[in-house]
Each structure stands twice: as structure tokens, then as C-alpha cells.
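New here. Invent one.

***
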Amino acid sequence: MRIATYNVNGVNGRLPVLLEWLEATAPDVVCLQELKAPDEKFPAAAIEQAGYGAIWHGQKSWNGVAILARGGTPVETRRGLPDDPDPAQSRYLEAAVNGVVVGCLYLPNGNPRPGPKFDYKLRWMAAFEALAGKLFDLGEPVVLAGDYNIIPTEADVYKPERWVDDALFAPDVRAAFKRLTDAGWTDALRHLHPDEQVFTFWDYFRNAFARDAGLRIDHQLLNAAAAKRLKAAGVDRSARGLPKTSDHAPVWIELK
């Protein structure tokens, strides 16, 4: 079972890229972030034609998350983050797909720091940690996949000294991510590639992708039941090189 997460940076504007990637890689489950579209503008028909059922939680111009399932439709289990400090922002969606609970999240960016956006990020993360604590002990495998907007360690960023003042690299943000892994959640990509410099995001500016000046901010966290089944993980870098593509690349795992 291949589960992927992909910040598409506008599902309608990047639809040709999304469809090309789906056809080339055929993941079983896909978590999408930054739809930047209200519910009525989600391209359900095109995605269905590509072989995927979908559920989505949209928002005009900003945010938005969706879960796709190949050959079926995800069974929605939760819409919106419990105790979200700003529930008007569409940032969390959860579903059951073939015996796996999949949470799709788009964690706030938090910049500029300090400021109200960073304060919101910390409050959102606290609510997410509380939910993760409840999900961890479910009997079935759980995967929390998405754009976390967190650079966990210096190994996850090109030239970390340039990011010391950024909300993605703030000490309290990194500490929150570490609390999740210390609580037993497995950072799938880092678990299988402990010593590699692996990036999932490259800015559009300064020729960042060609220089491989990237960040690792898209993650999949697995509870113990899912981690036992983890057999592979990677990044589909080729999607980042396509014309009119997102600044993120899809990140995937394979479960036995």
C-alpha cells in the first residue's frame, strides 16, 4: 500500500501536473494540501476519471486539504482539527482507507515570527499534539501525512544558518515535532534514510531546485501499528521538475 502526501500549491492550476504524477506512480492513497479552492471548485470529475475517489475540505484562495483513494472512496472519520484555534481555516481531514487511518494536515506556516501568525501556529500544533495522542493508541495503523511546515533538524535544510529566524525552524516548533517522535510516532522518511540529506521543498527563487537548496517539511508520521508495516519511503523529485509545478515534491511510503 503506497501512501503519498503532496502540497500541490493550487489544485486547479497544477491539475495537469497532479494527473501526470498520478498516472506515472499510481499511489493507493494521496493526501493533498494547499488546494486553494472552495469545495465547489475541487476538480472531482478529473480526479475520478484518473481512477480516484476523493473527499476534500476546501477554502477559497487559501489552505484546503483532500484525501484520494485509488479505485475507491475514503471513508471520512474527521473534518477539521478538534479545538482548532481558527476553524475557518481548512487544514485537517481524516479518513479510513483499506484498514489504515490517514490524517491529512496542512500545518500553519507561522511567519513572520514573532507575531500573531506564529502564535496561531503554536496553538494549532498544541491541538494537533492532543489529537495525535488519541490516535496513536488506535488498534489499526495510523498515518499522519502532510505539509508540517517544520524543519525537524539541521540535516533537513540547506544552509541551516540562514533559517534561524524562520518560523519553520524555530526551537519551540522543532521541539513540538520531537515530542511527537519521542511519544512513539515514527518519522517514516528519516527512519529509513537516517543519514541522507533528503528534501521535499525547493523555493521558486534563486534556482533553488537546480542547486538542490531545499528543505524537508513534508512528513509522514506513523503509529506503532503502521511503523511495523513500513518497508519503503521516498520523494518523487521528478514531479518538482515538471513545467508549472508545485514548489513541493510528493513524498511517499509503502506499507506491507
In short: Residues 141 and 226 are 4 Å apart (CA to CA).
